[in-house]
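Example 405.
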Amino acid sequence: MKMDIHRQSKHISYKGNNLFIEETSLLELGEKFQTPIYCYSIKQIRENFLELKNSFKKIKPIICYAVKANFNKKIIDVLSKIGAGMDVVSGEELKLSLECGVDRKKIVFSGVGKTEQEIKYAIKKNIKQLNVESEEELSEINLICLYLKKKINVSLRVNPDIDAGTLEKISTGRSEDKFGISKNKILKIFKKYKSNKNIKINGLSIHIGSQINKLDPFKKAFKKIKNMIENLKKEGFVCETLDLGGGVAIDYDDSKTLKISDYAALIEKIFSDLNIEIILEPGRYMVGSSGVLLSKVVRTKKGENKDFLIIDAGMNNLIRPSLYNAFHKIIPVKKSKKERKYDVVGPICETSDTFLKNMKIQEMKKDDYLVICSTGAYGSCMASNYNLRGLAKEIMIDGKKIFET
Ligand code: LLP
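Predicted structure in complex with LLP:
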């Protein structure tokens, strides 16, 4: 295993034998604060956003960061200041985004289970649109609008019946998945709401899954949706806006993943002749590479045929390895030459509290520090208090500046 973070985390790297996040030493952070700690590079987050934005030459999409990937207030703040909108999936995410001063006309609200209360709140706050996931939801929205005497824009989330070829548990675009409206029902819904005074159906949306590392599933889904837009046009319905969701993978394990420039070129090639507003909802791509989970070795333990490295971060802090068998690289904060194989495990009373098995890392001892890489997305936000362990502290780094959040 390469003892380095992947190319997408430029701002987390060794200076000599010591690991730094931007200009800040992770060893010093470990000694100053109580581990485990999520540490994020602000520069990396800004660069990820700007790279995505700049890779589009013709169409200028509205980039709505998927808040679910990491709802840290400072991240929302940093991204909205450089022009990002937000994709929210709960009333609380919407509230937080508005508190951070996000432009309400750049906020889309997705999700299959928006409650009446959440729908009311979104309508009152006059956000850009609700991405609607069922006919049932749409009729509830209609009643709420009538009651509030207000209007709302909605886009219909299409289930394109496409397998994104990613982890089973994070695929969302197959017909058996709970998400979106079957493509066969879309025209009927447009017709039904044609003259509705409260609801304006302004377009379509899709999201086929997460950590998609090939272009092909995107290509298939985007072509299907383009076809639908053209067919709707023939029936007299104009889609003004198209939300293409998120899903772009990051590089967790030095394997090839898709290039953001190819993703952007694909979107421009398929949609630039439609003269339609494009919305993107990237989550993982914006923040995944910006974060590490800094942890300390509690002790080593000699097993029957292997050695365990027991660390103070557990599956309550980072559940991805136990929930999805997801791989996160682990590297030492202070490099040395001597190698050794370990199972890296947390303190939680479950066998699934294992981060890596049989991993070659350098020899480590009690109180040494290490980091679990690429944990900026779906790390802290999925944490729990299991075993009554506390949540990991979160720290934002900007050069030498440290913001405790
Ligand atoms: N838009 C919608 C409607 C979504 O459901 C999601 C993610 C996104 C955008 C952002 O997708 P991204 O760009 O982050 O792939 N907890 C899982 C990932 C779940 C993704 C849920 N939806 C994980 O740890 O891998």
